[in-house]
Structures are given as C-alpha cells and as structure tokens.
Design a protein that fits this description.
The protein contains eight helices and ten strands. The protein is α/β, with parallel strands linked by helices. 35% of the residues are buried.
C-alpha cells in the first residue's frame, strides 16, 4: 500500500478502512524562542496486519508522528484516524511500547502486565487469563512472580510487549523498543518480535534508527527527512516470511539496506 492514498473514482468502491491513516498531518510546537515545525504534510496508511517501520535522522519527528497515532499529541493540521474513525483521545484501540518498558518496581511481572486492565476497567478474571497466555507467548511464564529488578533488560522489554498486547489493541506503536539493549540481546528480541507478530498479526508502526532491523521486521520501510519531517521514500521489503538470521546475508536484504542507507550518507 502506498504512502499516500487517493480517493477512488466515481465508479470505484471506497477502499477498506485502514488500521491507521494520517492525512496531511502537520505538527507545530510553540517554544519560548519561537515555533518549531516538527512534521509537515505527512501522509501515511497502515493496513490491517501490516508491519511498517519508520526511519529518519534524530529530531526529524518520528516520535511526534507516533504520539499523533497514539492521540497523545494533537496535529496542528490534518487528520489522523484508526479504522476510519478520527482520533480524539487515547483509547483501547492502540498499544504503545517505548524505549524503556517503565515497569513498576514494586509490582511483579504479572501485575505489571495487568496494569492496562486496571486503568481501562477490564474484567480482571479474563485479563488475568490473557496475561498468562501473553507471558507464555513472550517466554516469561516461569517469571510471573519475579520483580523487574530480578530480570535482564531484554526480559523487561518482553514484559512491556506483553503489557502492550493485554487489551488486544488493533494498532501497535513501538518507539525504538530495543535501542537501550546490547547488540546480541537486540538481535534476539528482533527475532522474538517477528515470532510474536506472526502469531498476533497486529498492525505495527515501528520506529528505529537501525536500517537492518527495519528491513528484517517490516513489510514496508518509510524514510523521513530531517526536520520538519516529511516522508521522502518508501520501500516494500521483497523478503518472504518467516525470516531468520540467514536472511541478513540474502542479496535482496543487502540491496534493501543499501538503498535505504543512501538517505543517510
């Protein structure tokens, strides 16, 4: 699916509602010294079950776009919608994972995963059953009673992913969730995330500074310009799934990375 979607002609049926759509989104911040244009005329469509990665230089507005999708920042102009419904406030349809999982240190793993159930008022018995299923999915079913300080960084991030999935959101927003991890743990969790995504088939907007990570995980990779952020390129990843460590030596993988890297040289 292309970055910008035009309306169908008079004899064409309307396209199905996207999981997320941004139409000419611009965001301007006011500061003590003036205004900053973070995003200008961003058009983006993510279809149901599609994994889209977003690359761009630091400060280009990637996180701002993610916050617009989470309804944490209101666009200065333009329209953002989920399933064709305009975004007005944060809600159950979206799950978010940031660079740090921000687990509560005084709660064990199970209770950290259950936090969305408490804040959203979900039926607790059903939520507890789903939490156990998700902890099994992320490989932490033996650690439900452990506390965050007893877990490695990668394990904590997997708790954050389980928590993000608890309320069964339609759209997952991930802002460099592996950035603080060492290289080996990051590679391991990249494989884990692909496995989880293949099992859940959620729509994903994934922000990263890693070109190989973007190509490995995604159906499409979008590239943003320096601030003010605009989408300047789109690459459909020509690799079958599931992907494994050997994928990274595939000629198509290497060529895709080289194509994207030209934007940052």
């Amino acid at each position: 699916m292309s970055v910008a979607e035009g309306a169908g002609g008079p004899d064409m049926p309307d396209a199905p509602a996207s999981a997320f759509q941004a139409d000419r989104i611009s965001v301007r911040y006011r500061t003590r010294t003036g205004t900053i244009d973070a995003l200008v005329d961003v058009n983006l469509r993510i279809d149901a079950g599609e994994f889209v990665a977003l690359l761009g230089p630091s400060g280009c507005g990637k996180s701002t776009l993610l916050k617009v999708a989470a309804a944490l920042v209101a666009p200065t102009s333009g329209r953002a919608s989920i399933g064709g419904v305009p975004l007005a406030k944060p809600g159950r349809r979206v799950g978010v994972a940031f660079q740090k999982p921000n687990l509560l240190p005084w709660r064990n793993v199970l209770d950290n995963v259950l936090l969305p159930a408490r804040t959203l008022g979900l039926p607790m018995e059903e939520a507890r059953r789903r939490a156990h299923e998700l902890l099994q999915l992320v490989g932490l079913d033996a650690f439900v009673q452990n506390y965050p300080a007893e877990l490695s960084g990668g394990m904590q991030q997997r708790v954050g992913i389980a928590r993000m999935l608890l309320h069964d959101p339609e759209l997952l927003l991930m802002d460099e969730p592996f950035a603080a991890l060492d290289a080996l743990t990051r590679e391991r969790l990249t494989l884990e995330l692909q496995r989880i995504w293949l099992a859940q088939r959620k729509s994903v907007l994934f922000i990263t500074h890693s070109i190989p990570e973007a190509v490995f995980l995604s159906d499409r990779v979008l590239v943003m310009s320096a601030r003010p952020g605009r989408i300047v390129d789109e690459l459909a990843v020509p690799l079958p799934r599931p992907r494994d460590a050997g994928t990274m030596s595939d000629v198509a993988f290497v060529d895709a990375c080289a194509h994207l890297r030209r934007h940052f040289q």
